[in-house]
Design brief:
Elements lengths: L17 H12 L9 H10 L6 H33 L6 H18 L3 H39 L5 H12 L4
Helix pairs in contact: 3-4, 4-5, 5-6
Length: about 170
């Protein structure tokens, strides 16, 4: 998963190494072999490791880390599904692969009822659509430029014929 942005330098827990973040998560949430711990116990546990934070920092870290884990899981699931579709021949082009990956990721995000992720995904989708539109506009302008240049360089046309053809190319009706 690509991070949208780096955590602020003052976000002590978010800037811990990955393995320490996982250890903190496991301590707070518990594992199959260890119980979950309260915020108070977790703050004391962190203090033993010389990591100081506030209860609000711990709450924010927990929310952020849970979201991050969910996003990574959704991304991995989407990638696995797309890989299987490619192997079975259901997806043949890179564009189809990208679209399928986005579709699966979107559905997983909706299934998780994760509004924040959904908004992020839709923002990326809108920017991608805008970029495609801008590329089409640029291509149209380049095509018109090429056609106009050909008309201007045509020695067999009169000035009036050239002007009429250029207006036609540019979509200008008089």
């Amino acid at each position: 998963m690509s991070e949208a942005r780096k955590p602020h330098p003052s976000a002590v827990l978010k800037n811990l190494p990955e393995e320490k973040q996982l250890a903190l998560w496991d301590y707070m949430e518990g594992t199959a072999t260890t119980p979950a711990h309260t915020y108070k116990n977790t703050l004391a546990w962190l203090k033993k490791s010389k990591i100081t934070t506030w209860p609000s920092g711990l709450v924010e870290f927990r929310r952020w880390y849970r979201h991050r884990r969910r996003m990574k899981k959704n991304e991995a699931t989407a990638l696995e599904t797309v890989k299987e579709c490619v192997e079975r021949g259901w997806i043949k082009t890179r564009k189809e692969e990208e679209e399928a990956g986005q579709l699966f990721f979107n559905r997983l995000t909706l299934a998780d009822e994760d509004a924040k992720s959904w908004v992020l995904v839709q923002g990326v989708s809108l920017r991608r659509d805008r970029l495609a539109l801008d590329e089409r506009r640029l291509q149209l302008m380049e095509d018109r430029h090429t056609e106009t240049k050909e008309v201007i360089n045509n020695t067999q046309m009169t000035t009036e014929e050239k002007e009429a053809r250029i207006r036609q190319i540019m979509g200008i009706d008089l």
